[in-house]
Write a structure and sequence with these properties.
This protein folds into three domains: 86 residues, Alpha-Beta Complex (DNA Primase, Chain A), CATH 3.90.580.10; 138 residues, Alpha-Beta Complex (DNA primase DNAg catalytic core, N-terminal domain); 165 residues, Dna Topoisomerase Vi A Subunit, Chain: A, domain 2 (3-Layer(aba) Sandwich). The protein has 18 helices and 17 strands. Helix content is 42%, strand content 17%. The C terminus is likely disordered. By secondary structure, it is an alpha+beta fold. It starts with a helix and ends in a 9-residue tail after the last helix. 39% of the residues are buried. It binds zinc ion.
């Protein structure tokens, strides 16, 4: 298996315009490049490549992904083959490692592949159902998402039915029912079986290779709100989904995190989507839980610079967050003390702020060097503009380091060093 470091190096070095441009005649149109789609016959150029998002998408046939996905599809290469070809192109040495994956038995690998295939089919089914719907689609448009975002991010809709996925899988091989249960798409209770997700906006969660592994599912009607249904139903752990290790959006954001040497951490799925719609393409979020150490360590392999996106209405409490961060970062913290500190500072505040403080603390104790909090979202045209914006301390972003106590600066050793 190719090491994560090699994969990161490949994604940092590659140029999607160069790679796709070698196979498709691309013309620059506005911020993007367009051409004739190599995956279906067309007269108009629906095939679009975005340099800032490091992605391609065909609005005719729906094909899309990153440069590696493009080569896999176009050349029929496997994921490691495509990586090795690109590594050769950019003179990147390929380091192989053994991994948990290598220890899997062939039947486990086959089952996982079948599970990922099913998840992909269900994602596409939900997506089609959203785009063909009336009220759920209108709800998303009213929330400020563009049709383009809904397509690019493959947002879906699970209808108000117990049988959408259940019927889909049982009409095929019976074996697929078991798989749907193992993927936590369907539930078996006694002799009854039914769908896990019903009447929700479906946000597909991907692994770093871009495979759909779970969903975040959001309520969208006032009736659901009145019934106090949980705002989000998060997919359970499954044979393909490990919540603690997964960051929502990382599959698409990692290319940009590597190139920008910075990651933006926001609270939820919709924040990531809003950021991406505003061309801030290096935003990620945890999947319905507090940010974990595993997730932060993964990000720290790519960058030590972080920006935390806070909601607009929380910006007024900025000072409190900064104070909390300074106090927390200044201590050798054990978990109990940590929780007490966070809660003491914030007893009147909401869960979002508590989780932000925990995140700040975790970032510093794990080795981040620059952490700032920015009011969110900002209307920024592209990544360059974003980098300009956050490098201007007089603007909305406030580097937390300036407020750190001398003790805190020991924890954040490069806190006074100016960025890049
Ligand atoms: Zn196409």
């Amino acid at each position: 298996m190719i090491s994560q470091q090699t994969i990161d190096d490949i994604f940092t070095s590659l140029d999607i315009i160069e790679i796709i441009g070698a196979k498709v005649d691309l013309k620059k149109r506005g911020a993007n490049y367009t051409g004739s789609c190599p995956f279906h016959n067309e007269k108009s150029a629906s095939f679009t490549v975005s340099e800032s998002k490091q992605m391609y998408k065909c609005f005719g046939c729906g094909e899309g992904g990153n440069a590696i996905n493009f080569l896999m599809k176009k050349e029929g290469w496997s994921y490691p083959e495509a990586l090795k070809q690109v590594a050769a192109l950019y003179n990147i040495p390929v380091v192989e490692t053994t991994s948990a994956e290598d220890a899997l038995k062939p039947e486990q690998i086959a089952e996982k592949d079948a599970a990922l295939k099913l998840m992909g089919e269900v994602k596409r089914m939900y997506h089609k159902l959203l785009m063909e719907s009336d009220a759920p689609l209108q709800y998303m448009l009213d929330r400020g998402f563009t049709r383009e975002t809904l397509i690019l991010e493959e947002i879906g809709y699970a209808p108000d039915s117990w049988r959408t996925v259940s019927d889909y899988v049982t009409m095929q091989e019976p074996r697929r029912w078991d798989l749907a249960v193992k993927c936590k798409l369907c539930v078996e209770k006694g002799d009854k079986n039914f769908d896990f997700f019903r009447n929700r906006i479906m946000i597909p969660i991907h692994d770093e290779k871009g495979n759909c592994i779970s969903f975040g599912a959001r309520i969208w009607t006032s009736a659901q709100e009145a019934k106090k249904e949980p705002k989000y139903l998060n997919g359970y752990e499954s044979i393909v989904y490990h919540k603690d290790a997964t960051l929502y959006g990382l599959d698409k954001a990692k290319l940009i995190i590597n190139k920008a040497d910075e990651a933006v951490l926001v609270e939820g799925y919709f924040d990531v989507l809003k950021a991406r719609q505003n061309n801030i393409n290096h935003a990620v979020a945890s999947c319905g839980t507090a940010v974990t150490e595993t997730q932060i360590k993964r990000l720290l392999k790519m960058t030590k610079n972080f920006v935390l996106g806070g909601d607009n209405d929380k910006a007024k409490d900025q000072l409190k967050i900064d104070e909390a961060a300074a106090k927390l970062a200044s201590k050798e913290i054990d978990q109990k003390e940590h929780d007490e500190n966070v809660l003491a500072i914030n007893e009147k505040d909401n869960a979002g702020e508590i989780s932000m403080q925990k995140t700040i603390n975790l970032l510093y104790t794990c080795g981040a060097t620059n952490v700032g909090v920015v009011e969110w979202p900002k209307n920024i045209k592209d990544l360059d503009e974003w980098i300009d914006f956050i490098n201007k301390p007089e603007e909305a972003i406030e580097p937390i380091e300036e407020k750190l106590t001398p003790d805190a600066k020991k924890v954040a050793p490069n806190a006074n060093k100016s960025k890049k």
